Amino acid sequence: MLSQVLTVAQMRAAEQDLIAAGTSVEALMEKAGHGAGAYVHRISAGRSVAVLCGPGNNGGDGYVIARHLADRGVAVQVFAPLPPGTAAAAAARAAFGGTIHEGIPGDLPHGEVFVDCLFGSGLTRALPDDLHALLVRLAARHHRRVAVDLPSGVESDSGLPLNSALPTYDLTISLGAWKHAHFAMPAAAMMGALRLIDIGCGAVPGVPHVLARPYLRAPAADAHKYRRGLLAIVGGAMPGAALLAARAAAHAGAGYLRLIAGAEPDGIPADLVVVRADPGEALEDGRVAAVLIGPGLGRDEAARVRFASVVRCGLPTVVDADALMILHPAPGVGPGMIFTPHEGELAALERAYGLPGIGHKRERAVALAAASGAVIVAKGADSLIAGPDGRLLLAPRASSWLSVAGSGDVLAGIIASRLAVTRDPWTAAAEGLWLHGEAAARAGAAFSATGLADCVAPALGSLL
Ligand SMILES: NC(=O)C1=CN([C@@H]2O[C@H](COP(=O)(O)OP(=O)(O)OC[C@H]3O[C@@H](n4cnc5c(N)ncnc54)[C@H](OP(=O)(O)O)[C@@H]3O)[C@@H](O)[C@H]2O)[C@@H](O)CC1
Ligand SMILES: [K+]
């Protein structure tokens, strides 16, 4: 339940359900403000805090946080450019009883922690200039910055900033449930660490969830290489990318890797079996559990022929890179497959399927999954997984060092390896995307794609 991701309308409905069940808005605000206040108290370590309170219930949370801090002896000042506009916020302000600076003050303090409670999910338009300037000036005068629910100026459902030059934060504390902006770029990049305060919201059916840490099993005691999963990687014109995918796949669980080579690869690792045969023939081996095609495939006629052979074999398949650019809707294309597009490949697939390509990334991925029947791993800084049945998983922010050439080949190799193990596209996509992020966390800074691939085994080990 705490992994669900809600729109503003769904959040309001969830809150209404709580209110209908007998909890008051004031009680919810108290719970949210105390939870957030505890985080701010820890960060402030007794040093001064400035809280910027807006006119709505996000501002109300701010007054509760300020009271929580003042009760614990923290020097706290509230900045309230606008009076409270809701009964709950007015009550929270009345209960605070400390220093409140009204309007837009000329002089602003320097201090340790700035808490942004100007606007939350009720933001409906860009911040006016005076409020924007106050927000920016207060943020700049404090060492640590905390956004409550959302950074002010960010649209909750889209993750789009409605103003330019908004502050960045060290911590964003979401209240009640995650919102889309917590996972969608560019907003997610502004938020720092993310924490969630539980205010008792129930499960909302059919909504997206945050991708969760999977629990993997070691091979069965009597396992052998075929039962663990034979993955066939169909290479093409540029063998390096397929070798890189194979290197990652080797560490993600499959028991046996076979490269159906196109161009002759150099430096074949000893543990990779290379087959120089037509993919159509090579894939007739009934022991092949899954196929990967795309990294280094090329986009010429030979590539199309190789892709058509893979489609004909009807095996669970990961379709990546060049294969996504030459793909067209056809019998056998889509169901049982995983497509792993980045933004450019997503747009190409939308053209291929005649989709308009409008809306949020998550909506575009869901539409593509429904149209194609494939599981879509829409990768990037805000990766997500969409299923043809409408299911949606949003990945937590991963290491920004993943923005390195070959990172996508590694991801495709990991997911394909999991597909060979699990034989289930949805499970493989979820496990693979998590493993990719976990491997990056272990690879540290400035890693190469090879370095990333070599961290997949320890990442997998941590999930057993
Ligand atoms: N409900 C609950 O049970 C709980 C809710 N909680 C908290 O409530 C928050 C949502 O509260 P909220 O709906 O009051 O929205 P919020 O973001 O504070 O401000 C809306 C006000 O701002 C105004 N306004 C909007 N944009 C503007 C702009 N650019 N410039 C100027 N004004 C602008 C808008 O006015 P209007 O658009 O009508 O003109 C309205 O008056 C949520 O994020 C969470 O923190 C928690 O306490 C848990 C319990
Ligand atoms: K805020």
UniProtKB/TrEMBL annotation:
Name of the protein this chain belongs to? Bifunctional NAD(P)H-hydrate repair enzyme
Please give the subunit comment from the record. Answer: Homotetramer.
| Domain of life per record | Bacteria
Q: Which residue ranges does the record assign to the YjeF N-terminal domain?
A: 11-207
Cofactor notes: Binds 1 potassium ion per subunit.
Q: Which residues bind AMP?
A: K379, G380, A381, D382, S383, G408
Gene3D superfamilies, per database record:
3.40.1190.20, YjeF N-terminal domain (3.40.50.10260)
Sorted alphabetically, the keyword list is: ATP-binding, Isomerase, Lyase, Metal-binding, Multifunctional enzyme, NAD, NADP, Nucleotide-binding, Potassium
Enzyme Commission number(s)? 4.2.1.136, 5.1.99.6
**Boundaries of every YjeF C-terminal domain copy:** 208-463
The family classification in the record reads:
Belongs to the NnrD/CARKD family.
Q: Which positions in this protein are listed as binding (6S)-NADPHX?
A: 57-61, 120-126, 149, 241, 296, 342, 409
**NCBIfam families in the record:** yjeF_nterm (TIGR00197)
Instruction: List, in alphabetical order, the GO biological process terms annotated in this UniProt record.
Output: metabolite repair; nicotinamide nucleotide metabolic process
Query: What InterPro entries has UniProt attached to this entry?
Result: Carbohydrate_kinase_pred_CS, CARKD, Nnr, Ribokinase-like, YjeF_N_dom, YjeF_N_dom_sf
Q: Which reaction does it catalyse?
A: (6S)-NADPHX + ADP = AMP + phosphate + NADPH + H(+); (6S)-NADHX + ADP = AMP + phosphate + NADH + H(+); (6R)-NADHX = (6S)-NADHX; (6R)-NADPHX = (6S)-NADPHX
| Listed GO MF terms | ADP-dependent NAD(P)H-hydrate dehydratase activity; ATP binding; metal ion binding; NAD(P)HX epimerase activity
What is its cofactor? Mg(2+); K(+)
Q: What does this protein do?
A: Catalyzes the epimerization of the S- and R-forms of NAD(P)HX, a damaged form of NAD(P)H that is a result of enzymatic or heat-dependent hydration. This is a prerequisite for the S-specific NAD(P)H-hydrate dehydratase to allow the repair of both epimers of NAD(P)HX. Catalyzes the dehydration of the S-form of NAD(P)HX at the expense of ADP, which is converted to AMP. Together with NAD(P)HX epimerase, which catalyzes the epimerization of the S- and R-forms, the enzyme allows the repair of both epimers of NAD(P)HX, a damaged form of NAD(P)H that is a result of enzymatic or heat-dependent hydration.
Q: Which residues bind K(+)?
A: N58, D116, S152
